[in-house]
Amino acid sequence: MSKLKSLIQCKCPRCQEGDVYTAGVFSKDYKSMNTNCPKCGLRYELEVGFFWGAMYVGYSLNIAISVTIGVATYVLGNNPDTWVYITSLIAGIVLMMRFNFRYSRLILLYLFAPKAVIEE
Is residue 2 included in any domain, yes or no? Predict the structure, then answer.
């Protein structure tokens, strides 16, 4: 399985088989993560406060979402009023909030976890 496919499916960055999250993105528990990979035992929180860095990744994802929505609103709306831009941006960011939360953590994990030690 490729790294991109396992990232999209929320799998472990090391073995690409174990699930990172315990529930689906549309579940009430969309934030809950496994502590370790159920297959290879990789500890997901590499150090205390590791996922604080996901805020920067999430900010980058929000900028990408905002630019995409802004361009789409311009093209599809034929340069509408300012309130249309603001409404579409707020709606898009709120709708993508759960995906942004999960994938910002996953992207950070994929950047740093391959170098991490397996816990036994």
Answer: no
